[in-house]
Amino acid sequence: MDVTVDGVAQSVTTGNLPQWSEVESLVEAAHRRCRGDTEGRVADYIPVLAQADPDWFAVSVAEVDGTVHSSGDVDVAFSIQSISKAFVYALVCEQLGHAAVRERIGVNNTGLPFNSVIAVELNNGHPMNPMVNAGAMAATALVPGRDPDEQWQFIHAGLSAFAGHALQVDEEVFLSESQTNQRNRAIARLLESYGRIALDPLAVVDVYTRQCSLLVTAADLAVMGATLADGGVNPVTGRRVVSAGVCRDTLAVLAATGAYERSGEWLFEIGLPGKSGVAGGLVTIAPGKAGIGTFSPPLDPAGNSVRGQRATAYLSRVLGLNIFASQAHTLAANRGTHHEH
Ligand code: GLN
Question: Which residues have C-beta within 8 Å of that of residue 245, sequence separation ≥ 6?
Answer without folding.
Answer: 5, 6, 98
